Amino acid sequence: MKRVPFIKSDLGMMLILSVLIGIVVGAIDTVFGRILIYLTDFRSEHSLLLIPFLAPAGMIFTYYFLKYGKNSSKGMGLVFKAGHQEEDNIPKRLVPFVILGTWVTHLFGGSAGREGVAIQVGASISLAASSFMKRVDASQFIIMGMAAGFAGLFETPIAASFFALEVLTVGALRYDALLPTLFAAFAADVTSKWLGLEKFSVAIENAPSIDAGIFIKLIILGIIFGLCGGAFSSALNKMKNLFVEKLPNPVRRVGIVGGLLSLLLLLLFSGRYAGLGTNLIDASFSASTINPYDWLLKAVLTILTVAAGFQGGEVTPLFAIGSTLGVVLSSFFGLPTAFVAALGYVSVFGSATNTFLAPIMIGAEVFGFENLPYFFIVSSVAFVFNGNKSIYGNQKVAAILQ
């Protein structure tokens, strides 16, 4: 597909469509998110009854997804290919399938995220809307939809805008899509807020003043978080390839790995590492108990869940991995626990997704804009030290960074 240059005379129509897309995607995010919260709470109350059925539930869903979902089973890879203009279409049936699949994953305890649904739904709906504007590059609508999906679910519209603009090709911001992306993200954010979707936010009020000693500590933390995110991405991609090689049948793969996951999830503190990881995030910022190995076990179980083919995503577990690792590191660095947990929350996500601006803005929108300098320093270092790895296999890297 040949890229069509942005035409400023189309701006008015583009912005109208971006707002409408944001409203629709924000509403879908809300329904999806609120039901997911209910299912998570229900599973937490009945872990011993539900987690053992992760494998059969995953097998049934995977069978029907492959049979009736056409190429929508390619998931995020399909979105990235459409964003790179290597695919012309994202099937509309992707929307109900990825929503239902993620509900199944979380009801039965898979350690996965939720952003995959939001981004895929947003991209699918937005791309469908691109038919109203023949002269505009359809990939702009992919970016717009990704931002709307992320913003509607996490209610961080500035971070969502930067994430969508930079994640397709690292080192090449899509400024041609900047304004409509911003409009779509804020429309989705306002919609999900108005419909009552919860937002996670914590006020970090005890951040230390930056001096030479604190600056050095922030640099070292950035290196650690960057290596952590890079290692997560590398391990995830290698595990996906290993599973495909050893278990080429997707239904059987989900069944075998799902059975192993059920056993591990129950043996390891009866479901402590099941689902999104919001329990670990909450514990990180409420002075509750965080074990030194929480971040590692959450990482391993998330890698197994996603690599096996369960629907969901990785972002919220990455938030949990980063925040719990931050809690562990805080005592070694003599820094406030919640402060270092916040640094880990944003920079492990950034290093694992190979993004730079998005994690900085997530930190500002979730933990307060007054802490932006800390997120800038740590995320900058983490971005450099992640080894150019990414959880998104179809992400491209600009020549200047290669």
TrEMBL record:
The keyword Membrane applies. GO terms for molecular function: chloride transmembrane transporter activity. GO terms for cellular component: membrane. It is found in: Membrane. The chain crosses the membrane at residues 12-37, 49-66, 141-165, 214-233, 254-275, 295-313, 325-346, 366-386. Pfam families: Voltage_CLC. Keywords: Membrane, Transmembrane, Transmembrane helix. It is a multi-pass membrane protein. Its main location: membrane. InterPro entries: Cl-channel_core, ClC, ClC-type_chloride_channel. This is Chloride channel protein. It comes from Tetragenococcus koreensis.
